[in-house]
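Complex 309.
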Amino acid sequence: MANELILHNYDFSNYAEKARLALGYKGLSWRSVIIPPVAPKPDLTPLTGGYRRTPVLQIGADIYCDTKLILRQLERLQSHPTLYPNGYTALGDAIAFWAEHQLFRPMSLYVSGTNLDLLPGDLQADRSRMRGLPIPSEDTVRRAARRNAPAVRIQIARVDALLADGRDWIAGPSVTVGDFAVYHALWFITARSYRLADELAPYPRIRDWMERMRAFGHGIVVAMEATEALDVARNAIPETPRVSDRFDEDPELGTFVRIRADDYGRDAIEGELVLIDSEEIALRRTDNTVGDVVVHFPRLGYDLRAQVP
Ligand SMILES: N[C@@H](CCC(=O)N[C@@H](CS)C(=O)NCC(=O)O)C(=O)O
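Predicted structure with glutathione bound:
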């Protein structure tokens, strides 16, 4: 079916867990394509034009990169129950930014370094290449894990402080994107092993809240082969983009542009600008394998520039 939701993901990806749980929260049905956790990703990049991070949502020939936009797109498809409640959305987004930048990086170094023996052998080298860093020795990875443990503990205590007034959800009485962002960072602690489970032992409020989050489940999921997802894109026509709302400084629609993440995994994606507004930027590109696709990115967190002819 051309309008099926297809999530390109792998099991221990915490950002994928954020998207899977958002699909569950909204009670959606979706197809799961398992992608490799390291580059190259030969069945994914024909769809994205070079974006290699995880997860990616595909709907026909429209490709949504980054969970920030994937959650927005799920909301557009099904607004109830909402991820963006009146009065709490800005706070939820601010908490999500903190969770995914200041909380998650030390978490990732602490958890991955502690579970080094359980990770795919090429993971550390791939992640270093993705960030443009030298490939670390095992000792370096283990030292980084130890060094980052305090930053993790300080911030877990902050999550507990957020919940201290007895609220059900991270930003207050309603579920927001902040819940999903904090959850996936804490989910990562035990995603690979229970070695660090004790980090949450002093915090019954956090554990109860995580239980409420886990109860959303993943929705109704049926596996799909990567080649089938490529066929879906090849046989579909991208949706007509909604009307844009650009700033004067933005490139004109129809311009040939280049976009890349502003933090890591900064592979450039090129195409014709077909949508730009305060939430989203979309590029149309023609791919040898899948034909015409439109690749969508969140507005913030991505660097967009017109290509000089
Ligand atoms: N801002 C991105 C971050 C995604 C991200 O960093 N995902 C990790 C996996 S959890 C990743 O892409 N790692 C490299 C890879 O999977 O190739 C989002 O919200 O989707």
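The chain has a mean pLDDT of 97.
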